[in-house]
Amino acid sequence: MSPGGGSGGKREPSFHQLRLFLVLAQELHFGRAAARVYVTQPAFSQQIRSLEQRLGVVLVERGGGNVRLTAVGQSIAEEAGAVVDAMARLRQAADRHAGAARGLLRIGSLGAEAAMPYAQAILSHLRGKHPDLEIEVRNLTFVDMFGTLLTGEVDAAFLRGPLPGGIQSLQLATETRVVCLSDDDPLADRDTLTLGDLADRTVVDMPPEVPRSWWDHLTLNPRPDGTTVRFGPVVRDTEAMVLAVTQGSAITFLPSAARRLYPRAGLTYVDCPELGLSTAELAWLAAHRNAPAVSALREAARQTLRPSGSPALDSASEGR
Is the peptide bond before 233 cis (omega within 30 degrees of 0)? Predict the structure, then answer.
């Protein structure tokens, strides 16, 4: 059915689509709008086309990357903004009257982050304190780990820093990082490695939807001596990452917990002090910070970590 087709069988637009359309109305560029919410451009474009089909109108004039809102699109943008604002007020009112944390809390987890002991302890504490709160843990890939937070698909997430702007966090733990090599790599039998030892090695890469600054930081690109990293196969999640390493296509760097979480035949982990530390973070949007369910999760994290003397107990470590 074309955007200008008849009204029969049309569905109501989703709240998610309206939020994406508002981003497009601000950016007037599909690529920039998609990057802003950390989704692929084709997926973003499909959501806008679906919105047009559901409304039965053409919202944007397309031509290359840049777009222009139609007269109808400008009118719809104003109404969509009012809907989004009203929904925010509705949620705030419901949260105030509910008092306690209840309903559904959607928590994202980058790979096996939710399986870490501190994450399990936080979730256990949360369930004990708020039995009426339904907790849904969703696995995230490198591609959607930030976008799902920014679009509201998850309320909070267990991630690894550094985090992009607009996301607040609570530091949960730090640990050393290790080099992940195939068993037949000549360096695999070493006890420790330096960045110099790895200068000629190819490193796995991230899809374009992943913030480049995040991966450059974690791969130390450029290196302290000014040389740039040679990147190889592109991976979307940790399983694909370790598979690429076992096949000898590249190396990668992971938190030391990977030794326990991702033991694989043909894989070796070697210490490399120069890689520095990896930081585990509990992240949320500033706008959702005081929602009862998110607030309960943050409090559960603080209560759970208090015996360890974690820096997360310092209020200065929140909200950066």
Answer: no
| C-alpha span between 286 and 105 (Å, rounded) | 16
- Asked whether the bond before 186 is cis by omega within 30 degrees of 0, the reply is no
Topology of domain 15-96 in CATH is Arc Repressor Mutant, subunit A (1.10.10)
The tokens of 180 are what?
């992940």
| pTM score, whole prediction | 0.70
- Nearest 5°: CA angle at 291, between 290 and 292? 105
Q: In a 3-state reduction of DSSP, which class is residue 150? A: helix
Question: 101-171+279-317 maps to which CATH number?
Answer: 3.40.190.10
* Whether the domain at 15-96 and the domain at 101-171+279-317 fall into the same CATH topology: no
User: Kindly report the CA angle at 317 between 316 and 319, in degrees rounded to 5?
Assistant: 90
pLDDT digit string, tens, across residues 153-203: 899 999 999 998 889 999 999 999 999 999 999 999 999 999 999 999 999
Question: With respect to CATH, is domain 174-278 assigned 3.30.565.10?
Answer: no
